[in-house]
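[Meeting: bench + compute handoff]

Bench side (C.D.) handed over the final construct sequence. Compute side (W.E.) agreed to return the predicted structure before the next meeting so the bench team could plan truncations. Sequence as handed over:
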Amino acid sequence: MNFVNNYKKKKVSKTFTCNKPFKLESGAVLNGFHLAYTTHGKLNADKSNVVWIFHALTANSDPAEWWGGLVGNDKFFDPKKYFIVCVNMPGSCYGSINAFDINPATNNSWYHAFPWFTTRDMVRTYRHLKNHLGISKIHIGIGGSMGGQQLLEWSIEEPELFQYIIPIATNAFHSAWGVAFNASQRFAIENDATWKEHHVDAGLEGMKTARSIALLSYRSYDTYKLTQKITSDNLNSRERSSESYQQYQGEKLAKRFNAFSYYFLSKGMDNHNVGRGRESTVKALEQIKAKALVIGISSDLLFPPTEQEFIAAHVPYAEFREIHSPYGHDGFLLEYEQIEEAIKTFLYNKVEEEALVTV
């Protein structure tokens, strides 16, 4: 089954369209853009129950699908209590503006000419959606990895918007280490003989290899030791668990994603830097007024805890919490019980502090 047929089976909850010109950090100007987004729950009377969730690189706009341990009925982020909003990143293939949309200058799909978005460009599109939804205050903003990068950007762009922010396994600027991983993945795509072609499956084999490279940064030595044991002593056997697992993960992603989205989103991540044009990274973080719980994963190779400690050290009302996990960067998706406990403790303490201040 090719990507287009598979994609059509994906449900897009809602679409917001902005028909005003939109200028990207690169200088490119779009005639407009559209965003796919999902909401759970209802906005309460005083509009004080908004939770805005930011997804990571290859996820979609429905956190109940990929963060089911935290989002859903009777979960911590319960739609009976909160109005939950999540937007599909521009450039992704789950309904927002992307490389397969029509370039008005050519009347054909953008493909390789797609004017990719930085994380700052992304949150500037979300501001239009926020206004459309009638939201003036966000109670909690939360996101991991690239989602956390967007959360930090927005917290600086609009310091009064968020009451609490919870960036997880993320950074204030993408590291040389992270860029090297992403560049290596793009090399794999570029070296696919089909990549230069203009069709939806171009570069797909290269993307499978890219995903294999990515997994090495998402997981850890202990992850593979625990879950992917070598099962055969045969020198000619391909039934070695970790090898077949890497191949399987590439095939799995190719059934639901495409090389163009993977390529351009990784470029957006590489150019993440909250300090760009704001004097310095430290000065930018100091502008955040939200109370922040910054969470790191002990075994994270891609976004090591030192990066979250840096954020917490420079955001004025922030604290750092480390989650212990053998699952590396992907721990932010898997260790939901520890994350929930950390959030509960943080919010409870903040409510107690605020109550003391008002006495």
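W.E. noted at the follow-up: The chain has a mean pLDDT of 93. C.D. will use this when planning the next construct.
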